[in-house]
């Protein structure tokens, strides 16, 4: 962790430091203006206001500063517009508008990433197209394209020149995108030329880092490469969720911290070797270039390298002043090279975290140091300042605010540096000899083992994170709270008499579940848990028991929901089908609860999810079965399976494409309220249900497939539900729920509740068995 310089610089010097941050803010606003239209005007205006306010403080240099701000803003704006025009008006973009089938030759500029699509698993890579042949013309150019192809693309090394054929389609962002087009259905790549020597060297080091920890447990095996060079391909999704809940996600991606640690280690070694003076600058420069090659020259890595360089500046004398100026220079330089990063969440987080460390942390450290050892004061101040500065952006992305982030970062801080350095050193040594490399890799594994333990235990705390809206009002409120806390923090931290009680209250809030008055409401019959983009529904069987229908995508989310409902026994779990957004949260249902039967659909597809569910249930001593015919009473819940027709368990095509229409559909009655639970059944299944159950009329409808636009509208309307609930994730990529589906439900007279806006939703039975909605926002 960088040592923060003492905050003893003269006020005049501090004022001068505002000049470069001002230019950085103006550059950022100009890039936003170019990429997002009028939304960037607010930032540009803010920069001008700051410039005018600074006139008095900056004295005779004020006019020059304002002129420089105008020049920088204009340069970034023109650069961004020229780049966008060059990409958007290229022959590739024109061919994409026509949907042309082309032959393309280009250089891979990103690592492959596996993505799920309606056509099965595909691989996404970025390619700098050098030549394209289509519509009878051959064009030589340099244009970025995203390629979507089949698994063979995963084996092509970065920097290789390849040839392929596919259909060009325009991007969703149109001519404002930083890529000219998508190349879909790409044929297996033909390697025309191998990568250059520096790419081959970087690939060898990355592979060697993985080899150095190959003998360690799976989580350690995946996390060490992620810490060193951002290679996060092997991370388990559940572990990633734990890192998100505890504010440790920055450790699993390329960040400025990675570069600071790696290059700082190289500088220490260089000093041991008696390298001095300007030669150290050369070592640092080579280290930065090497890190960029190792972590890949993608825009996010360029951003991380710039922010890491600012961190290196903070290590020297007068570090705060130099780092603040360096931050402004870094923002301007990055946006001149990659103006598209201005709208990137990663860029915003990097800049805000660095600014928080440089601006807030020194003052907090100094006040804490009045009653704590200085090293401990600094260890607390740095992650706290970075986390506070980033909180509004993190909340906008995740819809939650972590309450354990500062403590988690404080606990892992002592091992992040050793894990990164040992992982890199082990990888470099393993290039020469496997055994010594594995010894260092073991040390790195022990360090990240502690990080994994902090993340998993922290995420299990009752209030590790709280939900927060992503709308403008919620984010403005949160930003105001963060600004207020930044202003009040120096007063809270200056004395142990005030700081210790505040810290104890904060710890108590995260460890002890806070009571939720009126939750769950008396007489609740159905709970729809807010688990993101997925389904997890709970039917009240009475006496702390419940029937759980689907488990959502996140074990922690469904576990917390069941805890809040005081459910400790689950006599029946129904998994309507095997898609991940319905079954991946199953461990959260099984956690510390007595589980009886588990019903599943007869279509055992996709195979990976079926195998996962089977192994999880086997570990819990449960064997899944098909739903029985007729009705079944489970406590206070009456259930009848009405779809799919009875058939023996069998596989599907292997890609999950038939799973939705094989969803188990149930009619339930709880406390005098009838509920239709539909899974993700689609129009063909809905039409079959309409034929099999003519005149079906229910009080509550669980809207199929998260409110997708693919519905049998006549059937939905015929059900005449009084309440329709939509289990859906906020800001999902599917457009769920569709306005057309919501219109059908409203026209049918249903009250619509949706988890993306309402949070957890309860349906309560009134005295006359009329359903009423209660939401926990």
From TrEMBL:
Domain of life: Bacteria
Domain Metallo-beta-lactamase residue range list: 533-730
Keywords: Cell membrane, Membrane, Transmembrane, Transmembrane helix
Residues that span the membrane, as ranges: 26-55, 62-82, 248-270, 277-294, 347-364, 376-397, 403-432, 439-459, 465-489, 496-514
Pfam families in the cross-refs: Competence, Lactamase_B
Residues forming coiled coils: none
Localisation per UniProt entry: Cell membrane
Main location class: membrane
InterPro entries assigned: ComA-like_MBL (IPR035681), ComEC_N (IPR004477), Competence_DNA_uptake (IPR052159), Metallo-B-lactamas (IPR001279), RibonucZ/Hydroxyglut_hydro (IPR036866)
SUPFAM superfamilies: Metallo-hydrolase/oxidoreductase
Protein name: ComEC/Rec2 family competence protein
Lineage of source species: Bacteria, Bacillati, Actinomycetota, Actinomycetes, Propionibacteriales
């Amino acid at each position: 962790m960088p040592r923060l310089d003492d905050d003893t610089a003269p006020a005049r010097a501090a004022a001068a430091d505002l000049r470069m941050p001002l230019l950085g803010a103006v550059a950022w606003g100009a890039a936003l203006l170019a990429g997002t239209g009028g939304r960037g005007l607010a930032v540009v205006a803010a920069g001008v206001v700051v410039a005018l306010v600074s006139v008095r403080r900056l004295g005779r240099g004020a006019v020059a500063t304002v002129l420089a701000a105008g020049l920088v803003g204009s340069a970034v704006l023109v650069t961004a517009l020229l780049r966008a025009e060059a990409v958007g008006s290229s022959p590739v973009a024109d061919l994409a508008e026509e949907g042309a089938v082309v032959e393309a030759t280009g250089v891979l500029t990103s690592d492959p990433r596996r993505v799920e699509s309606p056509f099965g698993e595909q691989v996404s890579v970025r390619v700098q197209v050098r030549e394209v042949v289509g519509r009878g013309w051959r064009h030589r150019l340099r244009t970025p394209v995203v390629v979507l192809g089949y698994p063979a693309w995963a084996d092509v090394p970065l920097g290789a020149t390849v040839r392929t054929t596919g259909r060009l389609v325009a991007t969703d962002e149109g001519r404002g995108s930083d890529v000219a087009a998508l190349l879909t259905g790409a044929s297996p790549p033909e390697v025309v030329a191998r990568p250059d020597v520096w790419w081959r060297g970087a690939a060898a080091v990355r592979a060697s880092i993985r080899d150095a920890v190959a003998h360690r447990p799976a989580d350690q095996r995946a996390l060490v490469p992620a810490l060193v060079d951002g290679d996060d391909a092997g991370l388990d999704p559940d572990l990633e969720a734990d890192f998100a809940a505890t504010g440790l996600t920055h450790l699993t991606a390329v960040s400025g911290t990675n570069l600071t640690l790696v290059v700082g280690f190289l500088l220490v070694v260089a000093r041991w070797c008696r390298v001095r003076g300007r030669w150290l600058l050369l070592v640092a420069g080579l280290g930065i270039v090497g890190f960029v090659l190792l972590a890949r020259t993608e825009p996010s890595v360029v951003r991380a390298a710039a922010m890491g360089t600012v961190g290196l500046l903070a290590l020297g004398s007068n570090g705060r002043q130099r780092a603040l100026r360096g931050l402004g220079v870094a923002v301007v330089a990055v946006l001149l090279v990659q103006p598209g990063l201005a709208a990137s969440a990663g860029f915003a987080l990097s800049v805000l975290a660095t600014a928080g460390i440089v601006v807030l942390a020194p003052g907090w450290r100094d006040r804490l140091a009045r009653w704590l050892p200085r090293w401990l004061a600094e260890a607390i101040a740095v992650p706290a300042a970075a986390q506070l500065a980033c909180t509004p952006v993190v909340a906008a992305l995740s819809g939650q605010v972590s309450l354990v982030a500062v403590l988690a970062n404080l606990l892992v801080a002592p091992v992040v540096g050793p894990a990164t350095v040992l992982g890199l050193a082990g990888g470099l040594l393993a290039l020469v000899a496997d055994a010594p490399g594995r010894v260092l890799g073991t040390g790195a594994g022990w360090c990240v083992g502690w990080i994994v333990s902090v993340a998993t235990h922290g995420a299990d705390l009752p209030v590790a994170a709280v939900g927060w809206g992503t709308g403008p009002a919620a984010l403005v409120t949160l930003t105001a709270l963060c600004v207020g806390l930044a202003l009040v923090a120096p007063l809270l931290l200056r004395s142990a008499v005030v700081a210790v009680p505040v810290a104890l209250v904060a710890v108590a809030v995260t460890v002890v579940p806070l009571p939720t008055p009126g939750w769950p409401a008396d007489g609740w019959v159905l709970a729809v848990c807010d688990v993101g983009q997925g389904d997890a529904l709970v039917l009240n069987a009475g006496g702390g028991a419940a029937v759980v229908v689907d488990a959502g995508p996140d074990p922690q989310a469904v576990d917390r929901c069941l805890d809040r409902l005081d459910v400790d026994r689950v006599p029946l779990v129904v998994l309507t089908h095997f898609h991940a957004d319905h079954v991946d949260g199953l461990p959260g249902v099984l956690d510390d609860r007595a589980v009886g039967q588990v019903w599943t659909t007869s279509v055992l597809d996709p195979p990976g999810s079926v195998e996962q569910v089977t192994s999880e249930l086997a570990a819990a001593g449960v064997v899944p079965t098909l739903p029985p015919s007729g009705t079944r009473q489970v406590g206070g819940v009456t259930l009848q399976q009405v779809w799919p027709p009875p058939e023996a368990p069998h596989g599907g095509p292997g890609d999950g494409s038939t799973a939705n229409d094989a969803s188990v559909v149930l009619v339930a009655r709880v406390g005098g309220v009838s509920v239709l639970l539909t899974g993700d059944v689609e129009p063909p299944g809905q039409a079959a249900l309409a034929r099999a159950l003519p005149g079906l009329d229910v009080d509550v409808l669980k809207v199929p497939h998260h409110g997708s636009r693919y519905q049998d509208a006549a059937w939905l309307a015929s059900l005449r539900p009084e309440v329709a609930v939509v289990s859906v994730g906020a800001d999902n990529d599917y457009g769920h729920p569709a306005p057309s589906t919501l219109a059908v439900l409203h026209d049918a007279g249903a009250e619509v509740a949706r988890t993306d806006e309402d949070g957890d939703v309860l349906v309560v039975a009134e005295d006359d068995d009329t359903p009423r909605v209660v939401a926990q926002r």
